[in-house]
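[audit] Reproducing an earlier prediction to check determinism. Same input, same settings, fresh worker. If the tokens differ from the archived copy the diff job will pick it up downstream; this log only records the rerun itself.
[audit] input (152 residues):
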Amino acid sequence: MSSVPRITELLLKGYSVPEIVEELGKLKASSVKVYVRRLLGEMTDAQRAAVERARDERGSAKPDVYHRKFSDRPVLGPVHVRIGHRLLAKRQRLKMSHGEFCEHFEFSNRVMLSAMEQGYHDFKISEVLRIAEILEVHVDDLLCPPAGRMAA
């Protein structure tokens, strides 16, 4: 049996993607996101408005953190901010847009780069190593506070 009718029903009741995943149990979040995007794209304006009304009335039990504005997310910490500022300074010195910088240094996307620059991205070790290479610095220079300053 197809999950599409059930996903449509849950959307019209105002369920978020995480809630639909929890309700269905058998589908991965990535699959549900694909279905939801497709279903929302196929809905009429009236149906999409009904989904929004249902979401507003129901409220969201689990906020979708990924889709919040960066300014509404907590900054992860001083190391994240320091790495981000250094990355931003390098991009500005090179006079590159987010897209150009991503393409040149093979970052996955502009949104992730923007999150990195603002201190909202939780870096993987491989990313820190790649950023140190791009900035032409040692990893310690990225992770440790400058001499004479204490870590926050």
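[audit] rerun output stored. Observation attached for the diff report: The chain is about 60% helix and 0% strand.
[audit] end
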